[in-house]
Amino acid sequence: MDFVLSGVAACGACVFTNPLEVVKTRMQLQGELKSRGSYHVYYRNVFHAFYTIGKVEGLVGLQKGLVPGLWYQFFMNGVRLGSYAIIESSGYIHTNGRVNAVKTTVAGAVAGVVGAVMGSPIYLVKTHLQSQATSSIAVGHQYKHQGMTHALVAIYRNHGILGLWRGSSAAVPRVSVGSAAQLSTFSSSKELVIDLQVFPANSWLVALSAGMISSVVVVLAMTPFDVVSTRLYNQPVDHLGKGQLYKGFTDCFSKTLKKEGLTGLYKGLGASYFRLGPHTILSLFFWDELRKFYQPFR
């Protein structure tokens, strides 16, 4: 039940944040492997990107990839948050009744690795669909998938079962770092808010406040890995399924840093926060409240 509650909580957050995920993906692919000033800027900032996509592609364009996004959130975060909930309920993350920072970080990272491996094929398809755009505002490589099922079948037919896990070398560090930062800061922040007695111990504002604190840490820690992950998933591949732009995580990281500088690794930072921030806050809030609601039925 912990896995189901976690997945439902993440899906609830995804419905609200998917348009920002589309914006983030486009901004991270804009100017790929090109120095500043040498490419056309279709999206000047997160607000301009939101307006441009909405104007050219309509509301449907802003919700591209929603179906695989929901499936990804249910499986990846269901496994990730569900695993962490089991570890937490076993008492592992506490030392002498207090949250242990090292243990929560390790538990969050381990839960993130499991979730990333499980959800990688769906994330691959989601990235492809969200980057597909009208030619006048297209950035990055353009796939021609007609939907989630069509994409999964096409990738499997062309590159086999391993092709569905292409890009997972970036997904694992991305989710493990993000998960460790998110869950360790959430647990510690929740304990801090309770200690300060700002709100009653069982108030929904405790989880909401802790989620807000966690969201800032997550975005700062996760964005460089997120940029690399987006590019590895979306790059064109040859007939053998090998990437034509990057050999793997390290190659993509170093090429982006060399060509675009440190700002390249933080490309779309504003969009990342507007997407990851609310998603972190909402998913952790829904997750905490659903667990409290279910507790009497255990």
Automatic annotation (TrEMBL):
Q: Where are the Solcar repeats?
A: 1-90, 99-192, 202-293
Protein family membership = Belongs to the mitochondrial carrier (TC 2.A.29) family.
Location(s) in or outside the cell: Mitochondrion inner membrane
- Pfam families named among the record's database cross-references: Mito_carr (PF00153)
Q: Which organism is it from?
A: Oreochromis niloticus (Nile tilapia)
The principal location of this protein is: mitochondrion
Name of this chain's protein:
Solute carrier family 25 member 35
Q: How does it sit in the membrane?
A: Multi-pass membrane protein
